[in-house]
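[scheduler] slot 2 assigned
[scheduler] job type: sequence-to-structure, two independent chains
[scheduler] chain ordering preserved from manifest
[runner] begin chain α
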Amino acid sequence: MDRTVIAYVIYLVVSIGLTVWVARTLSRNGRVFLGDVLHGNEKLADAVNHLLVVGFYLVNLGFVALYLSGDDTIEDTRGIFEALSTKLGVVLLVLGVMHLGNVYVLNKIRRRGIMEREQQPPVPPQGWMPPTVGA
């Protein structure tokens, strides 16, 4: 088997495995965060969580597929490691950027919800006071 094909197979197995692991981790731990962001609406939190995971898979697996091809043929075992380290390093960076982007957007939504909750008084008004003149 050609060394380039071996590098491709290892790259695909590791990249897809990392993508699945990160997506599952984000989904499991992000569900709690989404529940808070969406004010305890668990059904909506599950739906948004599922949509985010599908989008995460589409973007990352699409990137992994596009980044698969290489221009150089791999001549030796050292070349396999060098090609894999470059390709997997870029995939890890893309996964990290996607994760940080998701957390940033969800945090903005969460902060907005907190601000809306704080604008309402803690107790309803209990009476009316006429305006004072000349005070």
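[runner] end chain α
[runner] begin chain β
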Amino acid sequence: MHVLYKSLILGMASSIQGLAMTFFLFPHLIPSGGAASMSVLFNYLLDTPFSVTLWVLNAGLLLAAAKWLGKSSVIWTLFCVSITSVTIDFLTPYITEPLNPVLLDLLLGAVVFGIGVGILFRMGASSGGMDILALIISKARGSAPGRTLFYINGSLLLLTGVVVDWKVIVYAVICQMIGTRMIDLIYKLDVKILVEKYKIHY
């Protein structure tokens, strides 16, 4: 029963993440991370749907990193990535223009995005992204994954800023700052009672 409950919570969190990206961030071409930067670039240059790029990129990276993450982690992450992509694909046709001024959408998007990802982390899953590629490279080269991830996301963000708009870099940094604060806040919440009640295993 705990598997079904975990699926529902992860599905909800993944939908929240997709909602934040579709409603608030993507209309302004603001990426929430490295994988999102790729989706923004492909959408801007080739008009490729955001959801397609996100799913293909994450699925490919997950399959490549299966031996490092473990099958269970890969399955849950692929599940979350799929729900996020479906949510984005379903909602995108209804969002033809930004809902609010860019700074307001940036604030709302970062907070909602952080809540969604925070729940995923709290439940022992992840939203995929370039952290998978960073892990593969760090394992192969024996380097620190954090520094590798910084170089990957930094390069992709810089490329997005050059191709799309330099303001994207500033907005993305602000999004990361707010989003990561929300992630930490959600991750540190006391869920001991919830875990004991539903016998959830992380």
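[runner] end chain β
[qc] chain β: The chain has a mean pLDDT of 80.
[scheduler] slot 2 released
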